[in-house]
Amino acid sequence: MTTTPAIRGWCPGLHTPMEAADGWLARVRPPLGRLSAAQARQVARAAATHGNGLIELTSRGNLQLRGLTPDSARAFARDMLAAGLASNDAATEARRGLLLSPLAGIDPDAAPDAPDVIRALDAALAAAGTLRGLPAKFVIAVECGGHIPAGTLRADIVARATDTGWMVACGDRALACAGADVARMTVTLAHALAAMKPASRPLRDPALGRAAFARMGVVDTTAAPSARPDRPVLAGPLPGHAMGVMLPPGPIAAGMLDDIAQWCDRHGNGHMRIAPWRAIVLEQCDTPPALPGLLMQADDPRLRIWACIGTQGCACATRDVIADAHALAPDLPPGVSLHVSGCAKGCAHPAPADITLVAGPDGYGLCPHGRADNTPVDIGLSLAQIHPIVRGWSRRPTDPTHATPREN
Ligand code: SF4
After folding, report:
1. Tens of pLDDT along 208-227?
2. pLDDT tens for residues 134-187?
3. Is 101 in the pocket of ligand 1 (CB under 6 A)?
4. Hey, which residues does 353 pair with through a beta bridge?
5. Residue 345 Cβ < 6 Å to ligand 1
6. One domain for residues 276 and 336
7. Do 162 and 51 share a structural domain?
8. Are residues 111 and 198 in the same domain?
9. 347 lines ligand 1 (CB under 6 A)
10. Which residues does the UniProt record annotate as the domain Nitrite/Sulfite reductase ferredoxin-like (predicted)?
11. Distance between CA 262 and CA 237 in Å, rounded?
């Protein structure tokens, strides 16, 4: 096992935990985005036994445990391997980090072959032992259509179900293909990118997609569809007798995951999906969980807020951004999104939000309609100054009172 101090761009995993202010953190990537209630309870138990009992749902649909030590991180990895929740080597585990639509195979309006596409892609990536050299945080997504709008999964390569079949998009280009060809096409594309040794990712440098297709000898690509910044709300009943539960900003206690797992066992089919939007989907469950702390109303403003661990667990932070995010929630106008970040790295939400606040030693910087690494239009703001700014915010994307963020 490799243990690594906090490094910008580093993506911690189960076998490659990362040091933070509250101890080491490690991630569990449920295979194919799905785990049984029994496995979820094992994760909850392990968080309490090996870590500090706090669990975060990451923007990639992973479960992140905090407060480990190098020794307990090793024990945690052993437990997760025994639970069937990981590959047994770090390289394979990293390659299989897919970002998946949580309703694949559940939603009757989604592509019926989506589960086959996902399984084939997972197997192809597991077998792609020579696939090395991709940029840190490189990720592949599978969108299967139906209830979850196309474009909500942001990734370097996106396999997306369309009206006529599938497409594989990378950067600014896309190629139509059959479902049976998605895995091969995606892995070939990933190899082409890796061979180019890019310093950036197609998500940040869309021209890399065109270059990768060209390297494969593919010229008949089309323009890749644009992404949608809004995330779907998965609170309450979902298509296919699924039940969505969403979690508040910040980590949850291991006991909450245990409670959700018990509900899943009693009222569902004993399986759940971890969604990339701080949500858990319970399969075959028609009874909304009556559990404290879950966000079950679609208009709850906390569904539109992102916050990282802040001073509760990260040495880079200067403020308890989770507490500040909760304090600002009642002020948030309908439809407005808010990202409260402990620093410019913006771990909780790499995409733009209507309001992005970045903590600094002298107060918050304000990045309207931007990301945490944009240049703030105002700095040194206290929470007292921010409350009225948030209350009066308009969702107009070109609000003349707020500068357009710099694109990095
Ligand atoms: S964004 Fe938050 S969690 Fe990430 S490095 Fe900065 S303070 Fe730490």
Report:
1. 999 999 999 998 999 998 87
2. 887 899 999 999 999 999 998 999 999 999 999 999 999 999 999 999 999 999
3. no
4. 370
5. yes
6. no
7. no
8. yes
9. yes
10. 22-82, 241-282
11. 18
